[in-house]
Amino acid sequence: MPFVPEITLLTAGEPWELWDASGRDAPPFWAFPWAGGQALARYVLDNPAVVRGRHVLDVASGSGLVAIAAAKAGAASVTAGDIDPDAIAAIRRNAAANEVTAATREIDVARDDAGRAEVVLAADVFYQRDLAAASLAFLRRASLAGADALCGDPGRAFVPRECLDALATYQVPVLTAIEDAAVKAVTVYRLPRQGPC
User: Fold this and answer.
1) Other CB atoms closer than 10 Å to residue 158's CB: what's the count?
2) How far, in Å, are 42, 58, 185 from residue 51 at the CA level?
3) What is the DSSP string of 1-34?
4) What are phi and psi for residue 24, nearest 5 degrees?
5) What is the assigned CATH class of domain 34-190?
6) How far apart are CA 1 and CA 9, in angstroms?
7) CA 1, CA 27: separation in Å to the nearest integer?
8) What is the largest CA-CA distance in the chain?
9) Is the pLDDT of residue 159 over 70?
10) How many whole angstroms separate alpha carbon 189 and alpha carbon 174?
11) CA 131: distance to chain centroid?
């Protein structure tokens, strides 16, 4: 993965064929690195103090890319969560391939909370209206409980920019099979504890 060469992921070469073969309604989000996850992983690796020595929760983890970055950056513990059981299996395989430890759990941002996490990471969660609202509420609950909440987004339709502080923007190369361009501008945001939303 050129943008985050420190991390190796097992990915699908033909994502849509995999989706067709699965017979499922939702695409296999865990089967390829999304733009927001690549940017958030890069940010964490370049700014390890964000997670070093802290308990980290990566939600909507997909392949586990961001969770693996947090582990490599020195987090005290990392939990990667996703609603898809196939993603949980992919996270375990990818963590092992990168020789890091990440606990896994199924997480539904609409009903679960961040527990005792000190840092909550979420990437590519603002592409659909209901998911965006549930994700923002999840991050807000975590922030109000004292966690630092960071997210990565490539300008999806429902990103709540007015609720977030921009930390960095990256030009991320992506798969044209899943995106509308070969490079996406991706912003890493922090949810302020006292904010407008």
Assistant:
1) 16
2) 13, 11, 24
3) -TTSTT------SSHHHHHHHHT-SS--GGGS--
4) -95, 160
5) alpha beta
6) 8
7) 21
8) 46
9) yes
10) 20
11) 14
Share of the chain above pLDDT 90, in %: 79
Query: 């995106």: which residue's tokens?
Result: 179
pTM: 0.93
Q: Which two tokens stand for residue 17?
A: 């064929």
Number of other residues whose CB lies within 10 A of the CB of residue 98: 20
What is the rounded average pLDDT of the residues 8-16?
Answer: 74
- Mean pLDDT taken over the chain: 92
Annotated domain spans of the chain: 34-190
Query: Pairing relation of β-strands 103-106 and 77-82?
Result: parallel
Measured from the Cβ of residue 115, the count of other Cβ atoms closer than 10 Å reads 15
Cα torsion angle, 168, 171, 173, 178, sign: positive
Q: At residue 28, does pLDDT exceed 80? A: no
Please state, in angstroms and rounded to a whole number, the distance separating the CA atoms of residues 41 and 35.
Answer: 10
Q: What are phi and psi of 88, to 5 degrees?
A: -60, -45
Which residues fall within 8 angstroms of residue 195, CB to CB, at 6 or more apart? 163, 164, 165
- On whether the CB atoms of residues 111 and 130 are closer than 8 A, the answer is no
The amino acid present at 183, given as its one-letter code, is V
Tokens of 184: 């996406």
Amino acid identity at 173: P
- Read off the pLDDT of each residue in 72-97 and give the average, rounded to a whole number: 96
